[in-house]
Amino acid sequence: MNELKPLLKDETEKLQPIIIAGPCSAETEEQVMATARELAKNGVKIFRAGIWKPRTKPGGFEGIGVEGLQWLKHVKEETGMLTSTEVATKQHVEAALEAGVDILWIGARTSANPFAMQEIADALKASGVDIPVLVKNPVNPDLELWIGALQRLYNAGINRLGAIHRGFSSYGKHLYRNLPQWHIPIELRRRFPDLPLLCDPSHIGGKRELVAPLSQQALDMGFDGLIIESHCDPDCAWSDKAQQVTPDVLNFILNTLVLRDSTVTTESLTLLRQQIDELDNELLEVLNKRMRISREIGQYKKEHRMPVLQIGRHDEIMQSRAKLAEDMGMSGDFMRSVLAAIHEESVRQQIEIFNDRTH
Ligand SMILES: C=C(O[C@@H]1C=C(C(=O)O)C=C[C@H]1O)C(=O)O
Hints:
Mean pLDDT: 95
Strand content: 5-15%
Number of strands: 8
Bound molecules: ligand ISJ
CATH topology of the largest domain: TIM Barrel
CATH class of the largest domain: Alpha Beta
Shape: elongated
Number of domains: 2
CATH superfamily of the largest domain: Aldolase class I
Largest sheet: 8 strands, parallel, barrel
Strand order of the largest sheet: 1-2-3-4-5-6-7-8
CATH architecture of the largest domain: Alpha-Beta Barrel
């Protein structure tokens, strides 16, 4: 994917960040038009609405189907906004292109399925159109699968591509509906710096209150845009009501976001970065000292036929350090993951001592 073209051709490209907004699902022509009019009035240039909805369980609203495509046409004619929708099959692609939809996106359940991705890529190639396609991350945290989905489209001649980070499914209840696992989109950015990266705070958060902080976090990390669910009457939405905001609330959120300028020079950061370099060296020294002690402990355990793993000690360390970290204003989870990594290496080094016949 080394010859990507700009995602959008017209002047909307200059509007940084790229904002795509609209309801989770197109429900009725009235709901679509009412939402679109308000969004357009507030300056939104790209409208989204789901026409076909892949639902986790049967029985929910599965989308209005092709009928809704005419409403998108109407949105475009009346407001001048570009329109976008999700496609998951060859038939969806054909119907959306036929109706003049401007931007397509691939959902998280579809990007996780290479057969579906290939079918969509083939349908796009056969159509010969030059349309921007955004690919949401697969539901599972698999960067290679995400890249694979993008590559299938690129190989089919689609070079106006973008990626959407919508978080990753996990078992159990969490603050987020889908865990952000920011390191995954950040790694995608590192591997493909020219690939536009959008964030979908509605699906990550799953709650209205999380849309603003997640949007800001995404911009702070250099994302190029946001795709946000907005509905004229969110409490009555037929799908995802908890995470949709009214166009006015969306407007408020967008106006309070602090935009980051990635073109500013980093000279003033040099001194601060030197300090970070020094601190990282100190961290390495301290870690190395800790490992030396751990190897001594390993030697003792070997001589006294004790097992390497000492769960009680490990738990005590985790708890006390996580508490200390929290007292210092760091996240306890962060400290626990650092300690888990240190512990793994410490155990590995002790096992090395156990297996070393020369000691
Ligand atoms: C260092 C030890 O061995 C292991 C490694 C630990 C660590 O690195 O903190 C803690 C407990 C053990 O599972 C120990 O027993 O103290």
